[in-house]
Amino acid sequence: MGFRAIECDALTRDRLRYVEAFGHGKLSIARSAAGCQPLGAILLAVHRFQALFGGISSAVIDSADDHQSACANHPKMSPAPFDSPPAPPEILYYDGTQFLMLPQNSGSSKFMSNQQSLPLKHWRLERWPFTNSPGIGQFYPTSSHNEALARIEYLVESKRRLGVLLGDCGVGKSLVLRLAAAQLRRQGCALAAVDALGASTREFLWQVASGLGTTPRDDAEVPWLWRQIADRISENRAQQVDTVLLVDDAGQSGPDMLTQLARLARLSPAPDRSPEREEVRGAWTIVLAAGPAQAARWDETIRNLVDLRIDLYPWTADDTIGYVQTALVDAGRIEPLFDEAALTTLHELSGGVPRQVARLADYALLAGAAAGIETIDAQIVEAASDEIDWPAAAMC
What we know:
Layout: E1 4-8, H1 10-16, E2 19-24, E3 27-32, E4 46-50, E5 57-61, H2 64-73, E6 90-94, E7 99-103, H3 106-123, H4 143-157, E8 162-166, H5 173-186, E9 190-195, H6 201-211, H7 222-238, E10 243-248, H8 255-265, E11 272-273, E12 280-281, E13 284-290, H9 292-296, H10 300-303, E14 308-311, H11 317-330, H12 340-350, H13 354-371, H14 378-388
Helix pairs in contact: 3-13, 4-5, 6-7, 11-12, 12-13, 12-14, 13-14
Protein backbone atom coordinates (compact mmCIF):
# COMPACT_ATOMS: atom_id res chain seq x y z
CA MET A 1 0.00 0.00 0.00
CA GLY A 2 1.17 3.51 -0.68
CA PHE A 3 3.38 4.90 -3.41
CA ARG A 4 6.91 6.19 -3.53
CA ALA A 5 8.43 7.44 -6.79
CA ILE A 6 11.79 9.15 -7.21
CA GLU A 7 13.98 10.07 -10.16
CA CYS A 8 17.43 8.49 -10.12
CA ASP A 9 20.39 7.94 -12.42
CA ALA A 10 21.73 4.51 -13.31
CA LEU A 11 24.12 4.41 -10.35
CA THR A 12 21.45 5.23 -7.79
CA ARG A 13 19.20 2.69 -9.44
CA ASP A 14 21.99 0.12 -9.13
CA ARG A 15 22.36 0.86 -5.42
CA LEU A 16 18.65 0.41 -4.84
CA ARG A 17 18.02 -2.55 -7.14
CA TYR A 18 18.65 -5.10 -4.43
CA VAL A 19 17.29 -3.06 -1.53
CA GLU A 20 13.80 -3.53 -0.20
CA ALA A 21 12.86 -1.07 2.52
CA PHE A 22 9.97 -0.94 4.91
CA GLY A 23 9.53 1.79 7.49
CA HIS A 24 7.10 3.22 9.97
CA GLY A 25 7.30 6.90 10.80
CA LYS A 26 10.91 7.90 11.36
CA LEU A 27 12.18 4.35 11.84
CA SER A 28 13.40 2.33 8.84
CA ILE A 29 14.20 -1.37 8.64
CA ALA A 30 16.22 -2.13 5.53
CA ARG A 31 16.91 -5.57 4.18
CA SER A 32 18.57 -6.93 1.07
CA ALA A 33 17.05 -8.89 -1.78
CA ALA A 34 15.34 -12.23 -1.17
CA GLY A 35 17.82 -14.83 -0.05
CA CYS A 36 20.47 -12.36 1.15
CA GLN A 37 21.32 -11.54 4.72
CA PRO A 38 20.06 -8.24 6.19
CA LEU A 39 21.94 -5.15 5.14
CA GLY A 40 22.66 -4.41 8.78
CA ALA A 41 24.68 -7.61 8.96
CA ILE A 42 27.08 -6.32 6.32
CA LEU A 43 27.40 -2.94 8.04
CA LEU A 44 25.95 -0.77 5.30
CA ALA A 45 25.25 2.80 6.30
CA VAL A 46 21.70 3.56 5.27
CA HIS A 47 20.39 7.05 4.64
CA ARG A 48 16.79 7.35 5.78
CA PHE A 49 14.29 9.74 4.36
CA GLN A 50 10.57 10.09 4.70
CA ALA A 51 8.30 8.78 1.98
CA LEU A 52 6.11 11.22 0.11
CA PHE A 53 3.04 10.51 2.19
CA GLY A 54 4.61 9.20 5.41
CA GLY A 55 4.45 5.73 6.88
CA ILE A 56 6.84 4.20 4.32
CA SER A 57 10.55 4.93 4.17
CA SER A 58 13.05 4.30 1.40
CA ALA A 59 16.72 3.54 1.93
CA VAL A 60 19.80 4.28 -0.18
CA ILE A 61 23.46 3.38 0.22
CA ASP A 62 25.08 6.52 1.54
CA SER A 63 28.72 6.67 0.44
CA ALA A 64 31.33 5.23 -1.90
CA ASP A 65 32.63 2.92 0.83
CA ASP A 66 29.11 1.62 1.41
CA HIS A 67 28.70 1.02 -2.31
CA GLN A 68 31.92 -0.99 -2.56
CA SER A 69 30.98 -2.94 0.57
CA ALA A 70 27.62 -3.75 -0.95
CA CYS A 71 29.25 -4.93 -4.16
CA ALA A 72 31.60 -7.20 -2.22
CA ASN A 73 28.67 -8.84 -0.47
CA HIS A 74 26.30 -8.81 -3.43
CA PRO A 75 28.20 -9.84 -6.59
CA LYS A 76 25.19 -9.01 -8.75
CA MET A 77 25.61 -5.33 -7.93
CA SER A 78 27.80 -3.37 -10.30
CA PRO A 79 30.91 -1.89 -8.60
CA ALA A 80 30.70 1.27 -10.71
CA PRO A 81 32.59 4.16 -9.07
CA PHE A 82 30.59 6.97 -7.51
CA ASP A 83 32.17 9.54 -9.80
CA SER A 84 31.27 7.76 -13.03
CA PRO A 85 29.20 9.82 -15.49
CA PRO A 86 25.51 9.40 -14.67
CA ALA A 87 23.34 7.64 -17.18
CA PRO A 88 20.08 9.22 -18.35
CA PRO A 89 17.73 9.26 -15.38
CA GLU A 90 15.08 6.65 -14.95
CA ILE A 91 12.16 6.54 -12.57
CA LEU A 92 12.39 4.12 -9.68
CA TYR A 93 8.88 3.26 -8.54
CA TYR A 94 8.21 1.54 -5.20
CA ASP A 95 4.72 0.10 -4.87
CA GLY A 96 5.11 -1.14 -1.29
CA THR A 97 6.36 -4.56 -2.37
CA GLN A 98 9.09 -4.08 -4.97
CA PHE A 99 11.04 -1.48 -6.94
CA LEU A 100 10.10 -1.03 -10.60
CA MET A 101 12.38 0.66 -13.17
CA LEU A 102 10.52 2.91 -15.60
CA PRO A 103 12.22 4.69 -18.52
CA GLN A 104 12.33 8.47 -18.21
CA ASN A 105 9.94 9.63 -20.88
CA SER A 106 6.76 11.65 -21.08
CA GLY A 107 4.60 8.64 -20.34
CA SER A 108 6.51 7.57 -17.23
CA SER A 109 6.74 11.13 -15.92
CA LYS A 110 2.97 11.45 -16.23
CA PHE A 111 2.60 8.09 -14.48
CA MET A 112 4.78 9.21 -11.58
CA SER A 113 2.93 12.52 -11.23
CA ASN A 114 -0.42 10.75 -11.17
CA GLN A 115 0.76 8.29 -8.52
CA GLN A 116 2.14 11.04 -6.29
CA SER A 117 -1.19 12.85 -6.20
CA LEU A 118 -3.44 9.79 -6.14
CA PRO A 119 -4.39 9.77 -2.41
CA LEU A 120 -5.07 13.52 -2.29
CA LYS A 121 -7.18 13.38 -5.43
CA HIS A 122 -8.95 10.23 -4.32
CA TRP A 123 -10.05 11.77 -1.03
CA ARG A 124 -10.54 15.27 -2.52
CA LEU A 125 -8.05 16.80 -0.08
CA GLU A 126 -6.15 20.03 -0.56
CA ARG A 127 -3.24 18.81 1.57
CA TRP A 128 -2.34 15.82 3.69
CA PRO A 129 -4.24 16.15 6.99
CA PHE A 130 -2.20 14.10 9.46
CA THR A 131 1.38 14.42 10.66
CA ASN A 132 3.32 12.58 13.36
CA SER A 133 5.06 15.78 14.48
CA PRO A 134 2.47 18.57 14.40
CA GLY A 135 3.55 22.17 14.53
CA ILE A 136 2.13 24.85 16.79
CA GLY A 137 -0.48 25.73 14.16
CA GLN A 138 -1.74 22.14 14.14
CA PHE A 139 -2.27 21.89 17.89
CA TYR A 140 -5.60 20.27 18.77
CA PRO A 141 -6.69 21.66 22.16
CA THR A 142 -7.96 19.16 24.70
CA SER A 143 -8.70 19.62 28.40
CA SER A 144 -5.50 17.74 29.36
CA HIS A 145 -3.24 19.79 27.10
CA ASN A 146 -4.89 23.09 28.01
CA GLU A 147 -4.51 22.26 31.69
CA ALA A 148 -0.81 21.50 31.17
CA LEU A 149 -0.28 24.87 29.48
CA ALA A 150 -2.12 26.65 32.29
CA ARG A 151 0.01 24.91 34.93
CA ILE A 152 3.26 25.86 33.20
CA GLU A 153 2.09 29.48 33.13
CA TYR A 154 1.17 29.22 36.81
CA LEU A 155 4.67 27.95 37.64
CA VAL A 156 6.21 31.04 36.10
CA GLU A 157 3.67 33.52 37.48
CA SER A 158 3.96 32.11 41.01
CA LYS A 159 7.79 32.15 40.84
CA ARG A 160 8.18 28.41 41.38
CA ARG A 161 11.56 26.99 40.52
CA LEU A 162 10.87 23.50 39.14
CA GLY A 163 7.95 21.72 37.48
CA VAL A 164 7.82 18.34 35.75
CA LEU A 165 5.67 17.61 32.70
CA LEU A 166 4.87 13.90 32.73
CA GLY A 167 3.33 11.83 29.95
CA ASP A 168 3.87 8.64 28.02
CA CYS A 169 5.61 8.65 24.67
CA GLY A 170 3.53 10.34 21.98
CA VAL A 171 1.02 12.21 24.17
CA GLY A 172 2.35 15.63 23.14
CA LYS A 173 4.96 16.75 25.70
CA SER A 174 7.22 18.31 23.07
CA LEU A 175 4.33 20.17 21.45
CA VAL A 176 3.12 21.50 24.81
CA LEU A 177 6.63 22.80 25.54
CA ARG A 178 6.76 24.54 22.16
CA LEU A 179 3.37 26.13 22.78
CA ALA A 180 4.38 27.18 26.28
CA ALA A 181 7.62 28.69 24.93
CA ALA A 182 5.75 30.79 22.38
CA GLN A 183 3.24 31.92 25.01
CA LEU A 184 5.87 32.85 27.62
CA ARG A 185 8.00 34.73 25.10
CA ARG A 186 4.96 36.82 24.19
CA GLN A 187 4.64 37.66 27.88
CA GLY A 188 8.19 38.98 27.94
CA CYS A 189 10.03 36.08 29.57
CA ALA A 190 13.64 35.30 28.71
CA LEU A 191 13.43 31.66 27.67
CA ALA A 192 15.68 28.81 26.64
CA ALA A 193 14.15 25.62 25.22
CA VAL A 194 16.61 22.74 24.94
CA ASP A 195 16.57 19.00 24.29
CA ALA A 196 18.53 16.81 26.70
CA LEU A 197 18.39 13.69 24.52
CA GLY A 198 21.93 12.42 23.98
CA ALA A 199 23.53 15.69 25.13
CA SER A 200 26.68 15.75 27.21
CA THR A 201 26.91 18.10 30.18
CA ARG A 202 28.89 20.64 28.15
CA GLU A 203 26.54 20.41 25.16
CA PHE A 204 23.51 20.84 27.39
CA LEU A 205 24.91 23.86 29.24
CA TRP A 206 26.01 25.38 25.95
CA GLN A 207 22.42 25.09 24.68
CA VAL A 208 21.10 26.75 27.85
CA ALA A 209 23.62 29.61 27.70
CA SER A 210 22.95 30.18 24.01
CA GLY A 211 19.18 30.02 24.49
CA LEU A 212 19.35 32.67 27.20
CA GLY A 213 20.99 35.05 24.78
CA THR A 214 24.65 34.79 25.73
CA THR A 215 27.23 34.10 23.05
CA PRO A 216 29.17 31.06 24.25
CA ARG A 217 32.26 30.02 22.35
CA ASP A 218 32.08 26.70 20.55
CA ASP A 219 34.91 25.40 22.73
CA ALA A 220 33.58 26.86 25.99
CA GLU A 221 34.27 24.74 29.05
CA VAL A 222 31.70 23.80 31.68
CA PRO A 223 32.82 26.27 34.42
CA TRP A 224 32.71 29.19 31.96
CA LEU A 225 29.23 28.15 30.77
CA TRP A 226 28.01 28.01 34.37
CA ARG A 227 29.20 31.57 34.94
CA GLN A 228 27.48 32.73 31.76
CA ILE A 229 24.16 31.18 32.80
CA ALA A 230 24.31 32.45 36.39
CA ASP A 231 25.27 35.96 35.27
CA ARG A 232 22.44 36.09 32.73
CA ILE A 233 19.86 35.00 35.33
CA SER A 234 21.14 37.71 37.69
CA GLU A 235 20.98 40.31 34.92
CA ASN A 236 17.41 39.34 34.08
CA ARG A 237 16.43 39.54 37.74
CA ALA A 238 17.91 43.03 38.00
CA GLN A 239 15.85 44.02 34.96
CA GLN A 240 12.69 42.47 36.43
CA VAL A 241 12.57 39.78 33.72
CA ASP A 242 11.48 36.22 34.46
CA THR A 243 13.87 33.56 33.14
CA VAL A 244 12.50 30.17 32.05
CA LEU A 245 14.22 26.95 31.00
CA LEU A 246 12.19 24.23 29.23
CA VAL A 247 13.97 20.88 28.93
CA ASP A 248 12.54 18.25 26.59
CA ASP A 249 13.51 14.57 26.96
CA ALA A 250 14.78 15.19 30.48
CA GLY A 251 13.78 11.62 31.25
CA GLN A 252 16.68 10.46 29.07
CA SER A 253 19.18 12.21 31.34
CA GLY A 254 21.80 10.17 33.13
CA PRO A 255 23.02 10.72 36.71
CA ASP A 256 25.53 13.41 35.70
CA MET A 257 22.91 15.38 33.77
CA LEU A 258 20.41 15.12 36.62
CA THR A 259 23.04 16.58 38.92
CA GLN A 260 23.42 19.53 36.56
CA LEU A 261 19.64 20.00 36.47
CA ALA A 262 19.50 20.02 40.27
CA ARG A 263 22.28 22.63 40.35
CA LEU A 264 20.41 24.75 37.83
CA ALA A 265 17.25 24.58 39.93
CA ARG A 266 19.19 25.74 42.97
CA LEU A 267 20.37 28.79 41.10
CA SER A 268 16.87 30.14 41.71
CA PRO A 269 17.23 33.68 43.05
CA ALA A 270 14.75 35.31 45.36
CA PRO A 271 12.72 37.58 43.06
CA ASP A 272 12.95 41.29 43.65
CA ARG A 273 9.85 43.29 44.46
CA SER A 274 9.93 46.71 42.90
CA PRO A 275 8.60 49.37 45.33
CA GLU A 276 6.84 51.09 42.44
CA ARG A 277 5.10 47.92 41.28
CA GLU A 278 3.11 45.28 43.05
CA GLU A 279 4.06 42.69 40.45
CA VAL A 280 7.06 40.54 41.34
CA ARG A 281 9.38 39.71 38.44
CA GLY A 282 12.82 38.25 37.99
CA ALA A 283 12.23 34.62 39.00
CA TRP A 284 14.00 31.54 37.58
CA THR A 285 11.75 28.61 36.58
CA ILE A 286 12.60 25.22 35.03
CA VAL A 287 10.18 22.74 33.45
CA LEU A 288 11.40 19.19 32.74
CA ALA A 289 9.51 16.86 30.36
CA ALA A 290 9.78 13.12 30.96
CA GLY A 291 7.89 9.85 30.91
CA PRO A 292 6.44 8.67 34.23
CA ALA A 293 8.65 5.57 34.31
CA GLN A 294 11.72 7.69 33.57
CA ALA A 295 10.94 10.22 36.29
CA ALA A 296 10.38 7.40 38.78
CA ARG A 297 14.09 6.55 38.45
CA TRP A 298 15.22 10.04 39.45
CA ASP A 299 16.93 10.28 42.82
CA GLU A 300 15.55 12.20 45.76
CA THR A 301 17.77 15.21 45.09
CA ILE A 302 15.82 16.19 41.98
CA ARG A 303 12.44 14.92 43.21
CA ASN A 304 12.62 17.02 46.37
CA LEU A 305 13.09 20.16 44.27
CA VAL A 306 9.89 19.65 42.26
CA ASP A 307 7.23 22.24 43.06
CA LEU A 308 4.51 21.04 40.68
CA ARG A 309 3.75 17.89 38.74
CA ILE A 310 1.95 18.36 35.42
CA ASP A 311 0.35 15.26 33.88
CA LEU A 312 -0.54 14.76 30.22
CA TYR A 313 -3.02 12.03 29.37
CA PRO A 314 -4.06 10.26 26.15
CA TRP A 315 -7.07 11.57 24.30
CA THR A 316 -10.57 10.50 25.11
CA ALA A 317 -12.69 8.97 22.35
CA ASP A 318 -14.33 12.35 21.80
CA ASP A 319 -10.91 13.99 21.54
CA THR A 320 -9.79 11.47 18.93
CA ILE A 321 -12.94 11.91 16.85
CA GLY A 322 -12.75 15.69 17.13
CA TYR A 323 -9.09 15.72 16.06
CA VAL A 324 -9.67 13.52 13.01
CA GLN A 325 -12.70 15.46 11.83
CA THR A 326 -11.02 18.84 12.41
CA ALA A 327 -7.87 17.79 10.56
CA LEU A 328 -9.90 16.60 7.58
CA VAL A 329 -11.95 19.79 7.43
CA ASP A 330 -8.77 21.88 7.62
CA ALA A 331 -7.40 19.83 4.73
CA GLY A 332 -10.46 20.61 2.60
CA ARG A 333 -12.66 17.55 3.20
CA ILE A 334 -16.15 18.50 4.35
CA GLU A 335 -17.92 15.16 3.84
CA PRO A 336 -17.39 12.40 6.43
CA LEU A 337 -14.47 10.15 5.50
CA PHE A 338 -14.17 7.76 8.48
CA ASP A 339 -17.40 6.02 9.44
CA GLU A 340 -18.41 5.76 13.10
CA ALA A 341 -17.04 2.24 13.56
CA ALA A 342 -13.73 3.28 11.98
CA LEU A 343 -13.35 6.19 14.39
CA THR A 344 -14.09 3.94 17.36
CA THR A 345 -11.57 1.38 16.12
CA LEU A 346 -9.01 4.09 15.48
CA HIS A 347 -9.26 5.29 19.06
CA GLU A 348 -9.13 1.80 20.54
CA LEU A 349 -6.13 0.64 18.50
CA SER A 350 -4.17 3.85 19.09
CA GLY A 351 -4.97 4.02 22.78
CA GLY A 352 -5.84 7.68 22.30
CA VAL A 353 -2.13 8.55 22.06
CA PRO A 354 -2.03 11.56 19.71
CA ARG A 355 1.04 10.43 17.76
CA GLN A 356 -0.44 6.97 17.23
CA VAL A 357 -3.82 8.41 16.27
CA ALA A 358 -2.20 10.54 13.56
CA ARG A 359 -0.01 7.71 12.33
CA LEU A 360 -2.86 5.21 12.11
CA ALA A 361 -5.26 7.68 10.49
CA ASP A 362 -2.54 8.61 8.00
CA TYR A 363 -1.93 5.01 6.96
CA ALA A 364 -5.63 4.22 6.84
CA LEU A 365 -6.03 6.96 4.21
CA LEU A 366 -3.22 5.43 2.15
CA ALA A 367 -4.78 1.97 2.46
CA GLY A 368 -8.22 3.24 1.55
CA ALA A 369 -6.93 5.11 -1.50
CA ALA A 370 -5.02 2.05 -2.67
CA ALA A 371 -8.18 -0.05 -2.27
CA GLY A 372 -10.26 2.54 -4.16
CA ILE A 373 -12.96 2.77 -1.50
CA GLU A 374 -15.01 5.87 -0.76
CA THR A 375 -15.20 5.66 3.05
CA ILE A 376 -12.76 4.34 5.64
CA ASP A 377 -14.34 1.55 7.66
CA ALA A 378 -13.16 -0.41 10.70
CA GLN A 379 -11.68 -3.17 8.54
CA ILE A 380 -9.38 -0.73 6.75
CA VAL A 381 -8.25 0.78 10.07
CA GLU A 382 -7.50 -2.69 11.45
CA ALA A 383 -5.55 -3.62 8.33
CA ALA A 384 -3.57 -0.37 8.54
CA SER A 385 -2.83 -1.06 12.21
CA ASP A 386 -1.46 -4.50 11.32
CA GLU A 387 0.85 -2.88 8.76
CA ILE A 388 2.37 -0.34 11.15
CA ASP A 389 2.26 -2.38 14.35
CA TRP A 390 5.55 -2.89 16.16
CA PRO A 391 6.54 -5.21 19.00
CA ALA A 392 6.32 -3.48 22.36
CA ALA A 393 10.10 -3.71 22.80
CA ALA A 394 10.60 -1.61 19.68
CA MET A 395 8.37 1.24 20.83
CA CYS A 396 9.63 4.19 22.89
